[in-house]
Amino acid sequence: MMPIELEQRKENCFSPLQDNTFQQVLQAALNMVERVYGLHRIDARKDMWRDLEDLEASLRNPWLIMGDFNAMLNHDDRLGSQMQEAEVRDFNALLTNTGLTVLKTVGRFYTWTNSQVHSRIDRALVNPAWINMWPHLQVEAKDPQFSDHALMSITIIEPPARATRPFRFLNHLCTLSDFMTIVKET
User: Taking every annotated instance into account, which residue ranges of this chain make up the domain Endonuclease/exonuclease/phosphatase (predicted)?
Assistant: First the structure.
C-alpha cells in the first residue's frame, strides 16, 4: 500500500481560501487517503486485510482507502462466474473488525470486466471520522477508459436543501401593551 501523492498545479486550483491554505488543506486530506491493490489469490490477500486492520487501529484521523480489493462484499458482486465464500468473508470481516464503511457508489455497478465475468471489486472505504468531516462525498464509477476497471472518482454530493418556513406574523401580538417598545429596541 502506498499513499497517494499530491500533484500540485496552482493554475488549476480554485478556492476562496488563500492558495497556500488551500494547498495545505488538500495535502492534509490526501495524507488521509490510502490506495490498495488486493492480490488475485485469497490467501495472498490475508496480509493486506491484516495490514489494513492494524493501520486502522493506529489512526484517529479521517481515513479513506480506495482501490482494487480483488474481493467482493456480497454474492451479487459477481456475474458470470462462481464466487468462493472466503472472498466475501474476509472483506466483510475487515469492515466488522474496523468499523470502516463503504462510501456510497453511483454509476456502474460492476467495476471490472473481461466481457464474460463482471465483478464489483473496486471500492472506497472510510472510517467514521472521515464521514464526520466530509459527509457529502460519494464515489462515481465511470466507464473504463484505459483498463478493464471502471474509472473511480470522488464527487461532492449537493447537501439536501433545508426547507424554509414562510414568515408568519401573528396579528394579536400588536395588541400587547409593550409591543411597540419591543419593536423599537430590536
Answer: 37-149
Domain of 48?
Answer: 32-161
Q: Which residue's entry shows cell 459527509?
A: 135
Kind of pairing, strands 64-68 and 78-79?
unpaired
- DSSP-based three-state secondary structure for 3: strand
Among 59, 37, 43, CA closest to 152: 37
Q: Are strands 2-3 and 33-37 parallel, antiparallel or unpaired?
A: antiparallel
Q: CA–CA separation, 60 vs 8, rounded Å?
A: 26
What are the residue ranges of helices labelled H in 99-127? none
**Structural domain count, the chain:** 1
Name the amino acid, one letter, at 135: P
For the segment 11-52, what is each residue's pLDDT rounded down to a tens digit?
333 334 444 555 555 556 656 777 888 888 888 899 999 999
Please tell me the distance from the alpha carbon of residue 93 to that of residue 178, in angstroms, as a whole number: 66
Residue 26, H or E segment? helix 19-30
Residue 10 in any domain: the answer is no
pTM confidence score: 0.69
Whether 40 is in a domain gets the answer yes
Has residue 2 got a pLDDT over 60? no
Rounded to whole angstroms, what are the CA distances from 122 to 11, 23, 72, 77, 103?
31, 28, 9, 10, 11
Identify the CATH number of the domain in which residue 37 sits. Answer: 3.60.10.10
